[in-house]
């Protein structure tokens, strides 16, 4: 907090500022104009705001009049439903039928484009430079930024880099004609006598299409390679380069790029970086940077901004279970900005400061701080965004004599993302501009010390804690285990550590685990690293029918006591196992990286899913374990409750070797069944670790039995066993149907009609609608298709692209695919590795050959040298529904591209195979999304996102038709399949006397 | 309401009354004594009251010290948990270990017996007569009543009758020694100079073990036969006979018995009947009686009481969905009493009046009314119960000079039921005695005109209406369709009418119904009346594979549109069908009586169950049709919803030909599947009527198709059909397993993994614990075992009786069985009729022969002449778990009796068969009931009631093991089996902008 004298000066200056601009309004809030009206409606109507912003987002892709007309109707309804101002132009023109539609199209097009132009200095370099000159004439300096679509490929990154180089080339020519803006400095060739006339800002992730903290070093190097070329050109112009800060995910990477670039040219003064005051890390980052600069003796420049991705950062963190990295109280950000401004200004000798804010309180505070600290004018400047807060920029220019506008330029498509951010910023409830100019809040309030406001808000929040959701019986409510967070250096370091650690256990012999005891068998089977099959990870004892029979007997013997153990106690074992799993999460991930070839994030996600199953089913059982009262008649008491079935055979796949095994076993166990668990022969070590979790949780003997073995030897035996009452299976269609059929044959001595819970294959499609956001669709399709080599039942194996967008989509898809690096997943640079085993490799290669004859090969990636079970990443175009690779499950990195004439055909094709597991749609048409909800009949449908990675509780997983029995793992009905319901009815009337309902309800 | 002057006189008299007894307390409320303390605790602690009253109920059956000790502990806990007064005696004796237990036993035994003695004038005739004499010495006249257990057999009814005859014989001797009590009348040999010295009351249903309004005439005749014998003896003594009124169920029957007996001896003055003021019918009944007496010129006497079965009447009515027959506002009863007293006193010339009340307001009102109407003393008298309200009886004697005590006598066992009623009466919140003597309410309040109080309470209730439960989407909540009410003459008359009506349709030819059209086939099959196989009811067109295939094709074609019909609309068709079924409920019942031989009530219950399924599943689908939001993460929207599977084959049984067919078909339809329905070959006409219901509800063509036909011809065809995705089957184990196995084989072209919802057999047991209430257990076992000839999957086929009670149970069981009449169920005198067909008859007869060799034949009932498929009602004792008839489902009127050494063995035997459908326990041990809840592992367990007649919603029905797949018809999970869940996940964040949760939640 500032001293009260300083704060008084800040407030006083702020009041002067307000007085000086009294009566002026930013053009954005001018209700006389279309844009002002749109802003006004948005601020008063949340639903309209959503529709408007989404319309702005999709607008550039509405390239035909039909598309535009349809979307206008879908987003805003007909003219009756529309806010009057939107239809005005059309109404004037007598909006009727298609003619009216055309008028409305024109009105909206011109207004949305005007909105964008408000914030964008030009669509081309030429136009931008012309406008920059105009701004200079009005006394405004500029920092120029090139708008860019998401960079999905090396070609796109290269093109983006080249745009900067061309811009710099143009500016080089132009700046000769520019006089320096007037100011206090001494050099007439510089602006204000001290600042470079050319000043650009670059977003680092646009320079590398695969930037990803998981591959931190690789990403830094790749970005630096292109940044360096730009910086050289900047230096040649004696210009200024500011490295922009983007989302939190890339923050540390950006800092690293800045530091390395800085050290490469330690003498050149004009290199800066942006920091965001809303990041909770920024105080620490700033201290670090300043200390580093002093230590290295290098000059730095910092542009401090509040931060523009607040929604994104909070949503992303909450979705992933991470701490929200940004301040959630607006005043905390404002206070941090002032605090950090002081820190920078105190260090003005080493650090130049650019204050990026439209907030009059903030600007006043910086002005007063600079005065208090006697900071020379050439060591700090003010920046505002082009098109925003015109009164503020005028005021600053008047007071400070210098101001720089942040001027993006480029085409409409990327411009719209920028526009949405600006609209969001201006219409947010907490927006200073909204409060100042649209709502005319009290000036005292606007100028209050934010540190005081923040403290007050923190106290207020503490006084009214959010109504907490609660879980059953005092537990916290279920929440997904947080995802791995590669922004954390400890998480990045943990993987190599864990890999090294588990490797020390190579070659161990793994026993069976039956009735609480380890059992060794004569027959051993090695388990190997599919990326290097000569690396034997362990020798696995193999169960035959004898051992399988022993395990069933043990489970049967353990059953009565386990069934009678109360649900809460059973649930506690699962919670205990989850606790243990958390402590060894990296080792459990490392085993999967080695034993089945998962990438770091994929392996970790498998472990968190296993933890989720344990935590979720524990709570579900506590919910279902409570007998339910039925009916309302007096004199009788009806209870409905659930009972376990007996011995459950859990037959698990290798592709989610821990998660699916844990899910099926935990469900069986917590419901009171006893488990005979057969892991896949390809992942017995991961399976062993599940047995370890339950053993360490002290699950009673016989409740969980681990019996790896050859399916051909003991698979049918288990399924046929008369004492097995329940079979939970996840795997191939062929095996699933075989189990289903065998289990239906009643064996002599069998007690129960067997129940089979089976999850089988998929032939999953993603539909790309003609208005899809390709920036999102392309990477999501690739990760859905090729993550873990496509070896997920949920993987995308078909992409059905609408004709109008087909070629654009395919071009970007293939270009991005080319960037993907293949190799052992223990190196995070590789996003794809070997497939599961030799059989898989051969089978997939056969399908690729078939695909090549059926369609056109669009992409066949390289395969690394070595003995790993590699197949090339393959994309085949021109596939039709009747083709083999459009119908059969390949279970590998093969993607079929299909060109559909319209959305209906796309849905029809998507539904065509006998599977119905997952599916996706990228579309920004509300009607198409609604249609897909109804008609794209798969177990898990995903709209505008990838189709893998279903999360427990949020996306219960499983399909119907030939994909499975309609069970939904991780969903509210799943445990019901493991139990039989019972009804107990008590006549509570005796001798004509019936206790009141309340009395008789007690059990 | 009375005139205000009269009311003032009543209040004034009442105040005098209170003054005259000031300071006196009934012994019941004397807190110095054990009983007073027990009453006091009961009134302050509802749970203790329940336990005490239940303990009193079970007490007489605790014939060993062990039983007594256990029950004391189970009911009241150890001495710490017990109210201090209970343990006092034991504590004094240093209650420790078994010695303490023995003391406690003695203390409780003596106190409970004392309690009973408070109300019972003696245990034997001798003791009773001695005590009557004592009472006479104190000036009290008496009416004597013989306590009786429920009369379960003709032997018991005869014994009860004989007790009365013996009592009368004894009294005959005694009365010679009795002087008439002093009074105003002229005859010194009569009490008070005008009243017979011998006065008895008889409960009519105790004179016939099968009294039942369904067989109204039969019951009246049977009761009259014994009542007549008692009445003759009464007349010989110049005594008085009052026919007691019991529950509402028998009210009209009792009135009829009275009227007939009255007319047989029109000149004899001393015959009375009790009426209950709490019955809403009583004003009408009273008017009727008075008019009838005048018309017939016969003298009558009415004892008016308030009524003692209030709990029973309300509970029973609410359980059955009937209007509650008694007033639910206490003051309404009191007001009715005064109103009816006036009516009787106004008619004193024809009707003698006995006022039976302990309420000082009531008594005062009667006194004042009699005075106002100048009623001579010999035309009215006052009665109170022996042992109750001693101050009141003294007061009456003082004022009126005459009072009669109602004096029950007899053994403890039936005495306890009487005791519980008295305790209940005294401890009820609304009890006048409790208010007067235990709580000392204001006298003004106690003496208020009840008509005024009733009006006030009615208004108060109207002002605060009960919080109504509501159903989905504006529908009323689900409630079971009311049971048939044979107390209603219209219901009794409706059956013969309907039987005659449907018989006019005999011989009709029934077509198939496919795709909305009737289809005739060449092959016809007759359907006949099993009680008279020569009666052909209709000719049924038979579907072959061609027609079955057409039906599947029609269903498949109808599916897409039906699936896409919204759940509410689908539900509306079911509600419409329910509405239609209600209008023809008696015809639908009559068809079942003729086509499959159901008794009236059984047939009607089948129709109400069908209606319940329609109503319940309609609401369930509305609940499940609403997509469920999952998860709480921002920026994503997860919906979980359900989809139908396609074509459902519904293969129905004959035993609940409408209910089960409707349940399976309605579930399939409302969830969006299309149905091919194969009714049983034994009940195709009932099945046709289901088709009619759906047709008249205008269900779209093809959604429901009716295809009767031979299982051997088209059963497998349907099951194997690749376009059938779902099979709902109810029937035999053999067929069920066959279907399950065939359905698991995937056929070429099959789209879905088939799902089979199967309900199969049962081998259900009822356990009779050594403390069971045999009055309830015996009739419930019989109706569970022999209702509808035992042809229910829920029927009781084994009764497992604890050794200690075995012989007593069996004796009463067999005696009652002997009373049951066998013959065509269209005559309601027959509780059992022919079995389904010739095959069933032969199979059951074979089992009977096996049973005879395995055990001892305890009962083999007679079989009527004629060609019906009759088998004898059979009870076989000495059966052990290993016997064939203890293990195999017989599906006929054969009951195996097994003698178990203790409760654990009984549970073990009960669980032994491979079936696990229903089961029951009669026990009054809280621990045994709790144990049964846990360990008697059947789908539907019933405690202290019969084990058939599960109701939709209240008792979801179905078993596990070899009884079925663990589905529960009529329960909250049932519809899930007909659908597959789907998850739809939408990423709602675009360009970093995520709408608020509320906005994005809209679909």
Automatic annotation (TrEMBL), chains A, B:
GO terms for cellular component: cytoplasmic side of plasma membrane. PROSITE patterns: ALDEHYDE_DEHYDR_CYS (PS00070). Residues 8-119 form the Proline utilization A N-terminal domain. Residues 128-434 form the Proline dehydrogenase domain. The keyword Aminoacyl-tRNA synthetase does not apply. The keyword Oxidoreductase applies. This is L-glutamate gamma-semialdehyde dehydrogenase. The lineage of its organism: Bacteria, Pseudomonadati, Thermodesulfobacteriota, Desulfuromonadia, Geobacterales.
């Amino acid at each position: 907090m500032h001293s009260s004298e300083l704060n008084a000066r800040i407030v006083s200056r702020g009041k002067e500022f307000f007085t000086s601009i009294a009566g002026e309004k930013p053009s954005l809030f001018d209700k006389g104009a279309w844009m002002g009206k749109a802003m006004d409606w948005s601020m008063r109507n949340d639903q309209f705001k959503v529709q408007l912003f989404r319309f702005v987002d999709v607008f550039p892709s509405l390239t035909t009049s039909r598309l535009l007309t349809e979307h206008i109707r879908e987003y805003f309804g007909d003219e009756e439903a529309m806010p009057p101002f939107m239809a005005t132009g059309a109404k004037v023109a007598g909006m009727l039928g298609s003619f009216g539609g055309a008028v409305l199209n024109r009105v909206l097009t011109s207004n949305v484009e005007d909105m964008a132009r408000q914030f964008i200095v030009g669509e081309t370099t030429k136009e931008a430079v012309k406008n920059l000159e105009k701004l200079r004439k009005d006394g405004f300096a500029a920092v120029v930024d090139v708008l860019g679509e998401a960079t999905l490929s090396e070609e796109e990154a290269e093109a983006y880099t080249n745009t900067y180089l061309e811009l710099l080339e143009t500016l080089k020519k132009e700046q000769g004609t520019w006089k320096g803006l007037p100011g206090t400095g001494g050099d007439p060739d510089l602006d204000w006598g001290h600042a470079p006339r050319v000043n650009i800002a670059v977003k680092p992730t646009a320079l590398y299409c695969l930037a990803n903290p998981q591959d931190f070093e690789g990403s830094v190097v790749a970005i630096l390679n292109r940044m360096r070329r730009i910086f050289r050109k900047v230096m040649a112009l004696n210009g200024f380069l500011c490295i922009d800060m983007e989302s939190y995910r890339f923050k540390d990477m950006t800092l690293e790029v800045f530091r390395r670039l800085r050290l490469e040219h330690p003498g050149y003064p004009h290199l800066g970086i942006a920091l965001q005051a809303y990041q909770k890390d920024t105080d620490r980052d700033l201290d670090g940077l300043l200390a580093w600069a002093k230590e290295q003796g290098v000059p730095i420049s910092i542009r401090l901004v509040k931060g523009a991705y607040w929604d994104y950062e909070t949503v992303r963190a909450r979705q992933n279970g991470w701490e929200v990295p940004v301040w959630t109280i607006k005043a905390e950000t404002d206070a941090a900005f002032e605090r950090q401004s002081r820190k920078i200004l105190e260090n003005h000798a080493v650090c130049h400061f650019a204050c990026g804010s439209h907030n009059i309180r903030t600007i006043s505070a910086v002005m007063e701080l600079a005065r208090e600290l006697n900071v020379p004018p050439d060591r700090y400047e003010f920046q505002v965004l082009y098109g925003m807060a015109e009164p503020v920029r005028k005021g600053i220019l008047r007071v400070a004599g210098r101001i720089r506008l942040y001027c993006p330029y480029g085409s409409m498509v990327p411009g719209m993302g920028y526009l949405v951010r600006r609209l969001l910023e201006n219409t947010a409830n907490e927006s200073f501009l909204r409060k100042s100019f649209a709502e005319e809040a009290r000036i005292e309030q606007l100028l209050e010390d934010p540190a005081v406001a923040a403290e007050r808000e923190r106290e207020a929040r503490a006084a009214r804690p959010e109504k907490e959701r609660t879980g059953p019986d005092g537990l916290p409510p279920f929440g997904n285990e947080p995802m791995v967070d590669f922004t954390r250096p400890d998480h990045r370091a943990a993987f190599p550590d864990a890999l090294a650690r588990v490797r020390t256990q190579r070659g161990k012999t793994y026993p069976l685990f039956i009735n609480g005891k380890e059992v060794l068998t004569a027959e051993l089977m090695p388990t190997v690293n599919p990326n290097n099959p000569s690396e034997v990870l362990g020798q696995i004892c193999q169960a035959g029918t004898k051992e399988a029979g022993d395990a069933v007997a043990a489970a049967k013997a353990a059953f009565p006591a386990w069934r009678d153990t109360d649900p809460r106690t059973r649930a506690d074992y699962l919670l205990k196992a989850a606790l243990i799993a958390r402590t060894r999460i990296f080792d459990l991930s490392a085993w999967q990286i080695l034993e089945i070839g998962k990438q770091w994030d994929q392996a970790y996600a498998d472990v968190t899913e296993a933890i989720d199953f344990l935590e979720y089913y524990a709570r579900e059982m506590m919910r279902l374990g409570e007998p339910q009262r039925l009916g309302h008649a007096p004199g009788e008491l009806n209870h409905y409750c659930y009972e376990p079935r007996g011995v459950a055979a859990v037959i698990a796949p290798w592709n989610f070797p821990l998660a699916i095994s844990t899910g099926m076993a935990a469900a069986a166990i917590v419901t009171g069944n006893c488990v005979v668990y057969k892991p896949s022969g390809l992942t017995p070590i991961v399976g062993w670790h599940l047995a370890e979790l339950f053993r360490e949780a002290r699950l009673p003997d016989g409740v969980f039995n681990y019996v790896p073995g050859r399916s051909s030897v003991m698979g049918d035996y288990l399924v046929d066993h008369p004492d097995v009452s329940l079979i939970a299976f996840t795997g191939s269609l062929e095996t699933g149907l075989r189990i289903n059929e065998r289990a239906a044959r009643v064996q002599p001595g069998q007690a129960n009609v067997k129940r089979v819970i089976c999850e089988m294959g998929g032939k999953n499609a993603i539909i790309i609608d003609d208005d899809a956001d390709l920036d999102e669709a392309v990477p999501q399709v690739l990760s859905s298709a090729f993550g873990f080599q496509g070896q997920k039942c949920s993987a995308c194996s078909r992409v059905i692209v609408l004709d109008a967008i087909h070629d654009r989509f395919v071009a970007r898809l293939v270009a991005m695919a080319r960037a993907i690096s293949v190799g052992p997943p223990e190196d995070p640079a590789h996003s794809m590795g070997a497939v599961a085993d030799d059989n898989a490799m051969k089978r997939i290669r056969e399908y690729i050959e078939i695909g090549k004859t059926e369609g056109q090969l669009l992409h066949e990636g390289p395969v690394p040298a070595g003995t790993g079970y590699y197949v090339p990443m393959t994309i085949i175009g021109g596939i039709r529904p009747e083709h083999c690779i459009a119908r059969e499950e390949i279970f590998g990195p093969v993607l079929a591209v299909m060109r559909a004439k319209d959305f209906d055909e796309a849905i029809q094709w998507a539904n065509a195979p006998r599977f119905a597991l997952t599916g996706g749609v990228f579309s920004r048409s509300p009607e198409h999304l609604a249609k897909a909800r109804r008609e794209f009949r798969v177990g898990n449908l995903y709209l505008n996102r990838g189709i893998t990675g279903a999360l427990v509780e949020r996306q219960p997983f499983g399909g119907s038709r030939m994909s499975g029995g309609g069970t939904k793992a991780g969903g509210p009905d799943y445990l019901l399949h493991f139990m039989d319901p019972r009804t107990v009815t008590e006549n509570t009337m005796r001798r004509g006397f019936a206790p009141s309902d309340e009395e008789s309800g007690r059990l």
